[in-house]
Design a protein that fits this description.
With 562 residues, this protein is an alpha/beta fold. It contains 18 helices and 22 strands. Helix 8 packs across helix 9 and helix 13 runs antiparallel to helix 14. The longest helix is centred in the last third of the chain and has 27 residues. The N terminus is likely disordered.
Length: 562
C-alpha cells in the first residue's frame, strides 16, 4: 500500500511508520485475526459491515494515532474519518487537501459541507459521517468519547457498525481496551507508546509560568479573567475555546504559534487533539460542571488535557496555577503517577442508543429511541438534546396532529437534530425547533426565505463586546446548519454562502476584539526582545512616535514619554 510523507507538517505526531512495530504487535496480544460479527448484539442491531476487519489503535496523547489513520486512508482508493470536533475535521481536511488535491477531498460537518462531485476522501464530525456511503477505509478518532453520557451513543454506533470495505480503525485511549475485546472480540489491538515524557512540575504562580504555557480553565468567564491577568503580567495571551468558530480559533492559534504571544488560555477543548507548541499545561482548577453537577475531573480527563504538553519528541510538564492567596487545587499522588505513566482505570460501559428507529408513528419513534441496550457493556445515557426536544414537542397537540406518516415523522426527527449552538436548553430550543417543523410540515415543505433573511440580518452586526459577538456567531451557526439540510430551503446553496460570509465577518471581529482586549502589543514586544537578549531596533519618528522592532510603544514629547 502506498504511503505518504506530508510536506506540510504533522497531524497529531508525524514522521512515524505506517505500521506498528513488531514489539507493539506482540504487546497487543494478537497475530493475524479472524473477524466475525459483533458478539451478543440482537440481529436487529447487526449490519453486514460488522464482519469486516477492525484494528483498534490505542494509546495516550502524542502517539501519532491520527497521523497513522490519515496515512493509511491516503493509501486507499477512498476513505472516511470521523472526529469529535468540527475544528479537528477542518484541520485534517486541510492536510489531506494538500496531499490529494481539493477535488478529491470532502469536509462534512453539521455547519459546513465541501463536497466535490469527485470526492473520494471524507473528513467529518462523527455525527455527520454519511453512514450509507461505502469507502475502502473508515476510522473513528477519540473513540473513548463513546462513554460520554450526552453524545457518546453516536461514537458507540460508529464503533459497532461503521466499517470500511478493506480496513477500519478505531483510535482512542487505552481505557477502551477491555470494551473493544468484549464488543469486538476479533479486532486487532495495537498499542502506541507516547513519543515524549510528561512530568508533573507542581504549582506555579502566574508570574512564574514558563513560556509556551497553556492555562486551562472550564468556563468562558475564567478564561477571560486569566487572559486579562496574562495581559498585565506577560503582555498577553491567545484564547481558544470550543465555542469559537474555526476562523477565530485559527487566528488565535496562529498568534500563539508565531510567538507573538507566549501564553494560551483555553477550555478543555484543547484536550481533543489540537496540535500546538505547548511546553507546559497549567490547570486553573481540577473540577468542572458537566451539565448536571460540579465534579472533579477524572484522571483520564486530566491526562487528556495535560498530554497537550510536549508534542512529538519534545518532553512536556503539567501542574496547577496558583492565583493570589486562594487555595490551589492539587493533584493527588496517585493521579500524578497515573498521568505520568499513562495508566488509567478502564472504561466499563459505552453509551448506547438504538440507531434503527421506527418512524411509523410518533409514539413508536420515541419508544424505539428509548429502547434498552442489548448488552451489559452498553448503557443508556442522558437524553441528548434531540430526544429531549422531541419529547417536549410530542406533548404539543399541533405536533401530534401534523406528525403522521413516515415522511412527516422523519422530518420532525431531522428538525430535532438541530444543535443547540446557543446553549439555551431543551425547553427554549424546542420552541425554535417547533417553528422549523411547523414550516417544514406546511406549504411546499421549505422554510420561508423571508424568515431566514430576517434572522440572518439581525445577526449582521460586528459591534458590542466579546460576549455579544460570540453569541451572534453561535446563532449564525444555527442558520448555517439549517442551510446545509437537504430540502429545507428552496435555495440552500445561496443561504449557505450568506451564513458562511456572516460567520466569517463575525469571526474576524471576534478575533480583533480578543486581541485588543487580551494582548498588550507594547509589553509583548518588549518582553519578547528581552527574552531574545539581542539588540532592539528603536526608532523615533519626527512626530515623536517611538517604535521598538516596528511596534509603536508610545510618544516622546520633549523629555516626557507617554
Amino acid at each position: 500500500m502506498a504511503l505518504f510523507k506530508s510536506a506540510h507538517g504533522p497531524t497529531k505526531g508525524c514522521n512515524e511508520p505506517s505500521r506498528a512495530s513488531p514489539s507493539a504487535r506482540r504487546r497487543s496480544g494478537h497475530s493475524q485475526p479472524q473477524f466475525g460479527p459483533v458478539s451478543g448484539l440482537r440481529p436487529a442491531n447487526i449490519r453486514p459491515a460488522d464482519v469486516r476487519p477492525v484494528t483498534a489503535v490505542l494509546g495516550p496523547t502524542n502517539t501519532g494515532k491520527t497521523f497513522l489513520a490519515v496515512e493509511r486512508m491516503c493509501g486507499h482508493s477512498s476513505g472516511m474519518i470521523g472526529f469529535p470536533l468540527r475544528l479537528l475535521a477542518r484541520e485534517v481536511y486541510d492536510r489531506v487537501v494538500a496531499i490529494k488535491g481539493a477535488a478529491q477531498v470532502a469536509l462534512i460537518t453539521g455547519e459546513e459541507k465541501i463536497l466535490p462531485d469527485t470526492a473520494r476522501y471524507f473528513l467529518c464530525t462523527a455525527e455527520a459521517m454519511p453512514t450509507d456511503r461505502e469507502v475502502a477505509f473508515v476510522a473513528l478518532d477519540e473513540g473513548q468519547v463513546g462513554a460520554d453520557p450526552s453524545r457518546g451513543h453516536v461514537f458507540t454506533d460508529r464503533i459497532l457498525h461503521m466499517r470500511g470495505r478493506d480496513e477500519t480503525m478505531i483510535l482512542g485511549s487505552e481505557t477502551l481496551r477491555p470494551l473493544i475485546r468484549r464488543l469486538l472480540p476479533h479486532a486487532e489491538i495495537i498499542t502506541r507508546p507516547r513519543f515524549s515524557t510528561l512530568t508533573y512540575a507542581g504549582p506555579k504562580k502566574l508570574s512564574r509560568l514558563p513560556r509556551r504555557t497553556a492555562i486551562v480553565a472550564f468556563t468562558a468567564q475564567e478564561v477571560y479573567a486569566l487572559a486579562e491577568m496574562l495581559r498585565r503580567h506577560k503582555g498577553g495571551a491567545a484564547v481558544v475555546m470550543g465555542s469559537l468558530s474555526p476562523r477565530t480559533r485559527n487566528a488565535q492559534v496562529a498568534m500563539y504559534q508565531s510567538g507573538e504571544v507566549d501564553y494560551l488560555v483555553a477550555t478543555d477543548a484543547i484536550g481533543m487533539g489540537l496540535n500546538m507548541d505547548i511546553a507546559h499545561v497549567a490547570f486553573a482548577g481540577l473540577g468542572k460542571f458537566d451539565g448536571k453537577r460540579h465534579r472533579r475531573l477524572t484522571v483520564s480527563e486530566m491526562a487528556q488535557i495535560a498530554g497537550r504538553a510536549g508534542r512529538f519528541q519534545k518532553d512536556g510538564t503539567f501542574g496547577v496555577v496558583q492565583l493570589g492567596h486562594d487555595a490551589v487545587s492539587t493533584f493527588e499522588p496517585e493521579e500524578i503517577t497515573a498521568i505520568e505513566s499513562h495508566v488509567f482505570p478502564p472504561l466499563e460501559q459505552l453509551t448506547w442508543r438504538n440507531a434503527r428507529i421506527d418512524t411509523t408513528t410518533l409514539p413508536r419513534l420515541i419508544a424505539s429511541l428509548d429502547e434498552r441496550p442489548p448488552r451489559a457493556e452498553l448503557v443508556r445515557g442522558d437524553d441528548a438534546i434531540d430526544l429531549a426536544v422531541l419529547k417536549r414537542l410530542a406533548g404539543e397537540p399541533w405536533v401530534m396532529e401534523r406528525a403522521h406518516g413516515r415522511g412527516r415523522i422523519t422530518r420532525l426527527w431531522a428538525a430535532c437534530g438541530l444543535p443547540d449552538f446557543r446553549k439555551t436548553g431543551a425547553e427554549l430550543h424546542a420552541r425554535l425547533v417547533g417553528r422549523v417543523f411547523r414550516h417544514l410540515s406546511e406549504g411546499d415543505g421549505t422554510l420561508p426565505a423571508a424568515w431566514i433573511a430576517s434572522e440572518v440580518a439581525a445577526l449582521d452586526n460586528v459591534g458590542g463586546d466579546i460576549g455579544q459577538v460570540a453569541d451572534r456567531i453561535a446563532a449564525a451557526r444555527t442558520w448555517t446548519y439549517v442551510a446545509h439540510r437537504p430540502g429545507w430551503l428552496a435555495d440552500g446553496a445561496l443561504w449557505a454562502d450568506r451564513t458562511r460570509d456572516l460567520e466569517n465577518r463575525l469571526s474576524d471581529a471576534l478575533h480583533a476584539k480578543l486581541t485588543q482586549r487580551f494582548v498588550d502589543r507594547r509589553t509583548a514586544v518588549l518582553l519578547k526582545d528581552l527574552k531574545i537578549k539581542g539588540e532592539q531596533r528603536v526608532e523615533v519618528d519626527p512626530d515623536g512616535s517611538v517604535a521598538v522592532e516596528g511596534e509603536v510603544i508610545g510618544t516622546l514629547d520633549g523629555f516626557v514619554f507617554t
